[in-house]
Amino acid sequence: MKCRHCSAEITFQLIDLGTAPPSNAYLTEATINQPETWFPLNVMVCEKCWLVQVESSSRAADLFNDEYAYFSSFSSAWLRHSEAYVEKMVQLLGLDHSSMVAEIASNDGYLLQFVRSKDIPCYGVEPTASTAHAARDQGIETIEEFFGVELATHLAKNSKSADLIAANNVLAHVPDINDFVRGFAVLLKEEGVATFEFPHLMKMIEDRQFDTIYHEHYSYLSFSTVVDIFKVCGLSVFHVEQVPTHGGSLRVFAQRSDSGRRDIDGSVKELLEREFAVGMKTKEFYQGFESDAELSKAQLLDFLATAKEKSQHVAAYGAAAKGNTFLNYAGVKADLIEYVADRNPAKQGKWMPGSRIPIVDEAHLQASKPDFVVILPWNLQDEVADQLAYIRQWGAKFVVVQPDFRIW
Predict the structure, then answer these.
(1) Rounded distance between C-alpha atoms, residue 196 and residue 255, angstroms
(2) What's phi and psi for 187, nearest 5 deg?
């Protein structure tokens, strides 16, 4: 396997999660009795540029297709996060009606709605038809294509160059990371700013967040590797922030290398030094990750087997991609977790890929009164626990397996 950034030959394996279908390939009435396509889920580490990457067997167009069912607006915590981001960037950059804001992977308009509410011109780029349609229903201009140099060049020639480009939780999703990043250098105005949010690899390794690995995530990113990739692709990183989303993420601020005038502040040097100190450019840092995943799998299976023996009913909440990774890695089926409740209508009435556990609405959970509810999107566990606090009325308990197993 060759590194998708530097083309070096890769031999160092981080973890092998076996095989699984794409995590967002939910089954429908039309497909539930058909075979699924499973791909290897093997993650490798490039010892030259230290880009951690899945050994891919699937195309982006197959993963992010017309049936893509992840809608960002169904998380109230994520909406609050996005609104706060817009407020901050408007103040920081002095954005107004003469500015242009673009978002790459704009999903259902979850973020751009807050930009538009301030009468700031904006548009999104979103390749999945389902979410792009939802954004257009809100009146948000959305270009339904994959982003890269070719599209960026077309947009720049058509007066779409941006003062701010937001890219939240997409940098890990692109197979050609070099072409993707170079597109930002093309689309930014001379003194424009691009921000990228993505889960921090350091947190993933330290907190054994193996369930954040799935086929849609082609890359797993350290700050130092991102800085190096951006430099090669025409961007200069001048600031970085650590944010709590998705179990610990980074918000990286970048400008064009050829025209950006912002000074590189101390946050960049500080985080680079921290990553170096913990050994992120050594093999030793990554060793033991797979054994931690095996322990988490054993804890889940032990809990489910015990509940089964006691005739206790176990449901789950949140038909999230990370949940699909965990369920398929552990081999869990509907005999152990009866259903997964989710508030997203696009997922209700479908089945989880691989495990084929039915996805139901929250009313079903209220009616069936399970003994335990496993929160699959553990990064949203506080939000979910507040939303489902009523399960205490019949004596049910919550269960979270990642990053540490607990029942409460």
Answers:
(1) 11
(2) -85, -25
Cα dist. 264→165, 238, 253, 260 in Å?
Answer: 19, 4, 10, 11
3-state helix, strand, coil in the chain (%, to 5): 40, 25, 40
Mean pLDDT of the chain: 94
Continuous H helices in 94-148: 112-116, 129-137
Q: What is the pLDDT of residue 76?
A: 85
Structure tokens at 75: 């998380």
User: What does the alpha-carbon distance between residue 287 and residue 174 come to, in Å, rounded to a whole number?
Assistant: 26
- Cβ(186)–Cβ(233) below 8 Å: no
Contact 281, 50 (CB under 8 A): yes
Contact 132, 180 (CB under 8 A): no
Q: Which residue has the tokens 């029942």?
A: 407
Instruction: Return d(Cα 150, Cα 195) in angstroms, integer.
Output: 20
Omega within 30 of 0 (cis) for the link into 35: no
pTM value is 0.89
Q: What is the pLDDT of residues 292-321, one digit of tens each?
A: 999 999 999 999 999 999 999 999 999 989
Q: What is the pLDDT of residues 41-77, one digit of tens each?
A: 999 999 999 999 998 655 555 555 455 556 766 678 8
Q: Which residues pair with 39 in a beta bridge?
A: 20
